[in-house]
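Tokens for chain A. Residues wanted.
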């Protein structure tokens, strides 16, 4: 590669590659609106099956309900902002490429690392839950769990490597199955609903201030007050976490300017519907909100309450469909995210080489899987089995969520900066919420991050995120910034920023 002698802002140096550099890093266009919708919903749908319900323990039903409304507003502001930015900058880089244009190479890199943490660790946590379900279904010993993780990674990384057509076909199938399981649960629950008795069965012990169960229900709407609303917000995030990954499919979308905004917003409204249905129906049947506040499998607990424990294994197998949908879709995301940062030189260049026949980022997919699986094995063999489960389901999970929330904060600021400093960028779609919507996203993200930091598990996760960031920044500062490449998103960003500077 010949060098571009010009040093650009942020102390980065670009290398101008020959066409052969991009020839071995090609992607194939395939996705339409329906495939993009399935990718967005599939990435998130596992959150309807577990995780969100823990908010009942800190806020009761009313606190969780209001907290979910606030988080929904944040995600609407975020998704409408992304729906505007993605067709204006239709590159695989997604959030990194948006921030690269808005804030320069370091801003793009910092945003990219936040998403990298989210997308590499989230499927690791999801496959841990898949292994837990399968251990119960097939009665395998606890020490066999890493084998389930390995099988999961091999199967679904393999499906993603085999081609974008197969990848999206699998995404559509497992997403529709997961939605069908939820629909079956909602219909089955209707005869058993007693909202006042079960959903409102969280009270508070006046002596300790802790949540207690009210056997006959009829508890207060906000048993833990306004604090309960704010404390429940991080858990409400699970109902929408990862919908923001859709722009990573931009270069594999047939018409990203037309299809990406439709796919993002259709996915968001689908998730709003399923999220509020599960929030209203799941706690309103026997077991109730108090017990769901500590449940690792709230949908399965609901099925047990309706059909009895005899059907537990069959229903568990169906419940795994929601976890598989998210696992498969987020593997797609980390493959494209690593590919994009590598193609531009922020990560080592070899990670962006694509499969010669299938045109999928197989190297990035394998690398992301190895990191996620490797972190899980280290935890498993150093913490001990019981402690490892708590660590993976707690600290690693919270690292992923914190990475996501930090990226939302940065994406809201990116949208505001793009509107302010680059008004002449062609925008095929404009957010109806505009800058006020992005400002709300920033504010709610900051509040959520604050309450994440009050949880000791999140505090441990922050240390992990800080270590991840430190390693990435040392690499980029010492080496990566000197080997950047004019990939599509970098070329766009340089032209826009130099054009704005000359005005």
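Reply:
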């Amino acid at each position: 590669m010949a060098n571009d002698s010009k040093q650009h802002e942020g102390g980065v140096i670009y290398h101008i590659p020959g066409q052969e550099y991009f020839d071995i890093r090609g992607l194939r266009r395939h996705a339409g609106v329906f495939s993009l919708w399935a990718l967005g919903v599939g990435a998130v749908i596992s959150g309807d099956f577990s995780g969100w319900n823990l908010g009942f323990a800190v806020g009761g039903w009313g606190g969780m309900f209001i907290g979910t409304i606030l988080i929904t507003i944040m995600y609407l502001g975020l998704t409408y902002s992304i729906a505007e930015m993605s067709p204006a900058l239709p590159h695989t880089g997604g959030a990194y490429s948006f921030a690269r244009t808005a804030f320069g190479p370091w801003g793009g890199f910092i945003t990219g690392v936040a998403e990298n943490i989210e997308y590499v660790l989230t499927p690791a946590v999801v496959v841990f839950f898949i292994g837990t379900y399968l251990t119960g279904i097939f009665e395998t010993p606890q020490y066999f769990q890493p084998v389930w993780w390995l099988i999961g990674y091999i199967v679904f990384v393999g499906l993603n490597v085999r081609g974008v057509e197969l990848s999206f076909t699998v995404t559509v199938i497992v997403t529709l199955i997961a939605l069908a399981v939820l629909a079956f649960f909602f219909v089955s629950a209707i005869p058993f609903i007693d909202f006042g008795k079960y959903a409102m069965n969280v009270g508070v012990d006046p002596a300790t201030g802790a949540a207690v169960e009210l056997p006959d229900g009829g508890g207060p709407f906000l048993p833990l007050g306004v604090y309960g609303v704010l404390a429940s917000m991080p858990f409400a995030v699970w109902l929408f976490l990862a919908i923001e990954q859709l722009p990573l499919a931009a270069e594999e979308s047939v018409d990203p300017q037309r299809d990406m905004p439709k796919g993002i917003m259709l996915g968001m409204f689908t998730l709003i519907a399923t999220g509020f249905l599960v929030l209203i129906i799941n706690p309103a049947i026997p077991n109730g909100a108090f017990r769901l506040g500590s449940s690792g499998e709230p949908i399965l607990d609901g099925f047990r309450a309706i059909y009895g424990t005899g059907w537990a294994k069959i229903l568990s197998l169906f419940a795994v469909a929601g976890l598989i949908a998210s696992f498969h879709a987020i593997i797609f995301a980390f493959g494209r995210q690593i590919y994009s940062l590598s193609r531009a030189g922020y990560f080592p260049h070899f990670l962006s080489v694509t499969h010669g026949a299938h045109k999928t980022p197989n190297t990035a997919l394998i690398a992301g899987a190895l990191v996620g699986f490797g972190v899980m094995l280290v935890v498993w063999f150093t913490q001990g089995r019981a402690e490892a489960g708590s660590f993976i389901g707690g600290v690693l999970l919270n690292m992923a969520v914190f990475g996501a929330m930090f990226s939302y904060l940065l994406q809201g600021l990116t949208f505001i900066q793009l509107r302010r400093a680059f008004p002449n960028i062609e925008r095929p779609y404009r957010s109806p919420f505009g800058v006020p919507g992005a400002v709300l996203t920033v504010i709610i993200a900051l509040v959520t991050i604050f309450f994440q930091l009050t949880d000791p598990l999140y505090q441990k996760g922050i240390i992990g995120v800080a270590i991840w960031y430190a390693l990435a920044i040392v690499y980029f500062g010492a080496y990566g910034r000197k080997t950047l490449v004019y990939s599509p998103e970098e070329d766009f960003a340089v032209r826009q920023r130099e054009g704005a500077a000359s005005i």
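The CA atoms of residues 347 and 475 lie 9 Å apart. The first strand starts at residue 2 and ends at 8.
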